[in-house]
Amino acid sequence: MKAIILHEYGGPEVLKLEERPMPEPGPGQALVQVAAAGVNFIEIYQREGRYKQSLPCGIGVEGAGTVVAAAPDVTEIKIGDRVAWLDGSGSYATHALIPAGKLAPVPAGVTLEQAAGAMVQGITADVLTSRTYPVKAGDRALVHAAAGGAGRMLCQFAATRGATVIGTVSSEAKAQVARESGAAETILYTVQDFEAEVKRITGGGGVNVVYDSVGRDTFDKSLACLAPLGHLVLLGQSSGFVPAFEIQRLSARSLTLTRPRVFDYVANREDLLLHAARVFAWIAEGRLRLLTDRTFPLEQAAEAHIALASRQTTGKLLLIP
Questions:
Q1: I need a surface site. Which of 109, 177, 232, 313 has the fewest CB within 10 A?
Q2: Quick one: how far is CA 8 from the chain centroid?
């Protein structure tokens, strides 16, 4: 097999493609031939050392493929099953060992590339709009980076659940993508003050929820955009980590701040299957539109990281082993 191996923390150049012995599944594990692996910001943070791991190690949390071997004690899946996952390790590879309990079946109406591109961002959007903050009809939601992979999913899920969505984007082309994904209003943050625009659009009332994947650069104004009893859902930090702040600031309008991890919401297999089934059903029914920005061969993992970190992508990036 071949895999991207991380021997040291650093820039994209530390991502090295190596040949490795084909592994054997241990207790509770399945060996999957990877058809596609998703590229996510969490892997950039791992590569840079923001999220420490035991080195050397594989990289990549998300993927989809076909089960080619399984330990004798595995009952959740069988050889030949098409499966996908969002909480694995070593997915940047031709083959990956994944705990069988973390594998979700991929139905016939969904391709493996679609599944790989929808696990992290699709399930995250479903979780964030149904459980972290249950979006309801009449809500107003602000989605940052609304044309990116996660942003597009959030726009679609929030709009489908009845919210009026306002999306921030960097260009007119991305504004069109956000509108096609369900955003009723778009704000070009490169030329407009998004706080002022949100207040104008809402008549000064603010929004019920902000989904903020940007972090440091948007945090303060995201708080200011919230209506009384509003919720700030911080789901990433593409611009950097949010510095320490005075928690008393939340009391001015009884605001709520949360920093969720989708992995905790699907740690229980029943929850994983529930959310995965909903995402896949929406894809198969055409209710959830996926957009793959680019695909890269496995040896170009560094280029994929550079593209994602540029924040100039629209939609999902995939590695195809």
A1: 109
A2: 25
